[in-house]
Structure formats: C-alpha cells, structure tokens
Amino acid sequence: MALALRMARFSAGPAIRWPQDRRRLIRLCSASDGVPTILCSKRREFATKPSPAPSQIKRNVAAEITSVGKVIYETGWDANKPHMKSHTSPTPPSSKKPEDDKKRKDTADTIKSKRDQMRDNMQDYIFTRYFNYVKNYDKVLEKNFPKAMQLYRVFFDGVKTFFGDMKRFLKIARIANDSPQGIRVLNRQELELYMQMPRDMIKVAPALIGCSLPMVGYAFFPLVFWYPRTFLTSHFWTPQQRSEFQIYYMKRRLCYNKPVFRCLQAKLKATAAHPKHAQFADILGQLGSGTHPTPEMLIDVKDIFVDGPYSLLGMPRKHVKNLVNLHGLPSSIFKRHRLHEHAFLVHYMDQAINREGGVHNLPLPALRYSCYLRGLNPECLSTEEMIEWLRNWVKVSTSIQGEHITLFLHLPILLGYNHPSNWKTIYGKEDN
Question: Rounded CA gap, 346 and 215, in Å?
Fold first, then answer.
C-alpha cells in the first residue's frame, strides 16, 4: 500500500520514464526516507538474485503497474466516496445483548398481561354487577310496584302457557288430520284442548296484538287487565279469577235451562203419533216435578229425537239459539253446525273416558272440568257426587248413535235441570 501511495505521488509530477535496469529502481527506492521494510527486503532480493531476462522484467513491471494502478484507483475512489460501513461480516453480538432483549421482552409481556388482566377483571366486575342488577330488578319493581309486577308475572306466565297449548293444539290437529279415524284417535285431554283452543286463540288474539304494538301497547296493556274476562282466557287468569269467571259463565249458561225445557214442552204434542210419546211425556213430567229420569229411561226414548220437531234440522230457530247458549258456544251464523260439532266432540270424550278406565280414574281437576263442560256446576260437590253424575251421562252418551245427536244436546236438561248445585247457582243468593 505504501508503495502504491508513493507511486501515486510520483505520478503527480512530470512523466518519467520507467527505469530499465535494476540499479535505477534500487536508487529510486533508496532516495526516499522511511522506506518500508518490504522495500528493503525487495532491494536485498534484487541485490542477491541474478538479473532476470528482459522479457520477464517487462512482464513483472507490467504486473506491478497494473496492481499499483488498481490500488491508486481504489484509493482515490475511496477518498472521494462518503464514509461507509465496511462490508466485513458483523461481529457476533455479545451474550449480554440477547439477555437484555429477553429481559425487556419479558418485562413488556408482564406489563401487557397485567393490563389485560385488569381489563378482564373490570369487564367481569361490570357485567357481573349488571346481570345481578337485571336479575334482581324484578324484586326492586315488585317492592316499589307490587300490583304492576303481579300483573306482569300473570301475563308472562299466561303467554308461556298459551303458546305451549297452541303448539300442542297444532300437533294434535296434524295427528287428527293424518289419521284415518280422525279425532277419534285422540285421548280425553287432547280432545278437550282440540275443542277449546280455537276459541281461546280467537278471543286472545286482539289482546296479544294490541299489547305488542309500539305505542298503543302502553295504553292497551292496562285495559286488557282491567277487563280480563273480556279480553283474556283462562291462561292469564289468577286462581281466584278462574273460579269467579267459571261461576259467572256457568250461571249464564244455566239461565237457558228453563227456556230449553219450555221448548221441549211446546213440541210435545207434535210427537203424539210417535210410539215413545207417552214415555217422553212422563220424562218431562218428572223434570217439571223436580226429579230426573234414569239413564235407562232416556235410552229407551232416544228414537224420538231422530225425526220430527226434536231433530237438529226440525227444531225451530229459537230452540236452536237457546241450545247454543246453553252449551256456552260462541254465536255465529251456522248455529246448527256448531251444535253438531260440539255434540260429537263431547261424545268422543265420553268414549275416551271409557277407554281410559272410566270416570272414577279421572283426577279431581279433570273431574270438575268434565262436569262444568257438560252443564253441571261442580262447586260444593263432593268427588262421589261428581262421579255418579258423570257415570249417568257417559252411560247415555255411549249408548246412542249419530242420529240421536239432539238427545245428547238435551242431556244437560234431562240429567241436570233439577240438580241442587245448578238450582243454587241460578236462584241462590250471591255472597257479598
């Protein structure tokens, strides 16, 4: 390198002719001060070694010129270039640096984990407090607004019960439609739901729609509970309301016992030609005197209801209307069809009761509902009295055919007109 720099300095002066012998080359090397050791060694080599051939000297000189020029070019280029990092391979980092990086990384992870843990704890605390507040909010409302919360609970439970019965009704209707035997394959409970649920859905539909409207619901909801008997069904009634409304409807139905009995008496002369005229007249006489005929007596005169003024098509309009009200059916244009459908549904229930083991196997709520459905007020009646009355009903019901449908429709009069429970319901004094 020193030789290259020295040659660069010489090249800055006037052009000199390259020495052609070794003496001049040695003299050039010795003329300057501070000659490097390598040049001295070169001089000794030149002094000791025999002189090479001229062609070899030319080749060596050319190689030296080429190498010197290359060094000069690179030196000048490096001097003009800005200072840059050497391309030497980086020294491997010391073992302390990875440890520091690891410590910093661990510290950052620890801080992040603590931050995340604090955030999670805060979220858990907020949500826990919120859910506890929502869960206990009904208790707060019940404490501050007891009547409103009572209505809310009744309505909420009623909606769940109503929609549960509606799902069951849709399932039962699908079974009845798919079965070759129709509704006769259903048991007693399914038949009761199949008969009652369509009326309940029509009755409660305005209340559910009105309460679900955005602005109208706030005003319609109190109105619905102000008149629960008008707008709601038994799904939404309290036990006390259910008992009160059942007595109300029963009393309203029993008020038509006497008009129906008068219609039977009015058409008695029209059956004078019938073979069973005398027997039926005796039955009406017993009802007028305060007693009831036996089931066997009613089965004996069943043919008188097949044709004539006591048939479904032969009865006058007033008689049909009184029968509809007697059975608690909704008023409609097709009153005879309503009576026909109701009679067969209850008839199939009676058959289902026999299939399920008889009247005595009915639980007490089912026993009370069966009496209520057939025109007997079950209030203040013992279980034995209800079972005895239902046995007489089922005995007559399962002994008649489809053409005796009007006999079935008049069974509430023929078996319950003078019953003490019904008589007390109609003419008894109401408790204050």
Answer: 43
Alpha-carbon distance values, 275 to 281, 292, 303, 304 (Å): 11, 21, 9, 8
Sequence-ordered list of residues with C-beta below 8 angstroms from that of 221, at least 6 positions apart, any chain: 155, 211
Q: Please report the beta strands in 313-416, taking only residues with DSSP state E, as ranges in sequence order.
A: none
Whether the Cβ atoms of residue 237 and residue 153 lie closer than 8 Å to each other? no
Angle, CA 356 vertex, CA 416 and CA 370 arms, to 5°: 25
How many CB atoms neighbour CB 38 within 10 A? 11
210-265: pLDDT as tens digits:
877 777 667 777 788 788 888 889 888 888 888 899 999 999 999 999 999 999 99
pTM above 0.70, yes or no: no
The pair phi, psi for residue 361, each rounded to 5°, is: -90, -5
Q: Which two tokens stand for residue 242?
A: 């259910």
Report d(CA 302, CA 408) in Å as an integer: 9
What is the distance of C-alpha 402 from the center of its chain? Answer: 45
Compute the C-alpha angle 55/57/59, nearest 5°: 70
Token duo for residue 227? 């008149």
CA distance 222 to 148: 9
Q: State the Cα–Cα distance between residues 29 and 93, nearest whole angstrom.
A: 45
Angle between helices 188-212 and 364-373 in degrees, nearest 10: 80
Burial class (CB in 10 A: 0-12, 13-18, 19+), 53: exposed
